[in-house]
Amino acid sequence: MELQLALDLVNIPEAKALVKEVEAYIDIVEIGTPVVINEGLHAVKAIKEAFPNLKVLADLKIMDAGGYEVMKAVEAGADIVTVLGVAEDSTIRGAVEEAAKTNRKILVDMISVKNIEERAKELDALGVDYICVHSGYDTQAEGKNSFEELTAIKRVVKNAKTAIAGGIKLSTLPEVIAAKPDLIIVGGGITGHDNIQTAASQMRQLIKQG
Ligand SMILES: O=C([C@H](O)CO)[C@H](O)[C@H](O)COP(=O)(O)O
């Protein structure tokens, strides 16, 4: 089970400072969509150069032009790139084919997918690397989480790794771990904690215990 730190509300220097504090406890750094909007793919490049031993995920939430946009993220140093599950199959295929050329990975974000099990099955057959259930900021504000959706995709996904994101905190992590995703994505649960090092190390410890 891997731990990904999502960085959403920071600039590049702040992102570097945060990662430096918790790099021992995480596997993947996510350059979040708001950071890409503010800083561009320079943020991916800067973090990959500063932390070459960590995997970097570019949260582009691609909806079209899958091959081209994955190519640009990979050029910037991304190891994993996100594509939306609601995108057309042709977009998913383009993304998967482009990533495979350099052994990079595609994570499909299931945000706003209605028929979650059926779409997860299709995406699995299209050869994506990760399928991630996700309650975004706006649905988190309405009290939603994706714990049940994780159980649903785990029933049908045979090849891809499963992942979960959206509002996960130390207090809810045990419930998430019990559902056994391959990847747990945490943003505010670490970056919004009083002591980010403590939060990250305790999360790592819980994940290790399984
Ligand atoms: O993808 C995200 C969101 O849509 C904003 O871009 C976040 O990275 C994801 O939700 C994880 O962050 P937290 O919800 O703060 O854990």
What would you note in describing this structure?
It is an enzyme of class 4 (lyase). Pathway: One-carbon metabolism; formaldehyde assimilation via RuMP pathway; D-fructose 6-phosphate from D-ribulose 5-phosphate and formaldehyde: step 1/2. Pfam families: OMPdecase. By secondary structure, the protein is α/β, with parallel strands linked by helices. It has a single domain (2-209), classed as Alpha-Beta Barrel (TIM Barrel). It has 11 helices and 8 strands. It has helices at residues 12-22, 33-39, 42-50, 66-75, 89-101, 116-125, 137-140, 147-156, 173-178, 188-191, 196-209; strands at 2-7, 28-31, 55-62, 80-84, 105-109, 130-134, 161-165, 183-186. An 8-stranded parallel barrel has the order 1-2-3-4-5-6-7-8, surrounded by 7 helices. α4 packs parallel to α5 (89-101) and α6 (116-125) packs across α8. The longest helix has 14 residues, at 196-209. The chain is globular, with a radius of gyration of 16 Å. Bound molecules: the ligand O=C([C@H](O)CO)[C@H](O)[C@H](O)COP(=O)(O)O. Ligand LJD2ZHX5 is lined by residues 6, 8, 30, 32-34, 59, 136-137, 165-168, 185-189. The ligand O=C([C@H](O)CO)[C@H](O)[C@H](O)COP(=O)(O)O binds at residues 6, 8, 30, 32-34, 59, 136-137, 165-168, 185-189.
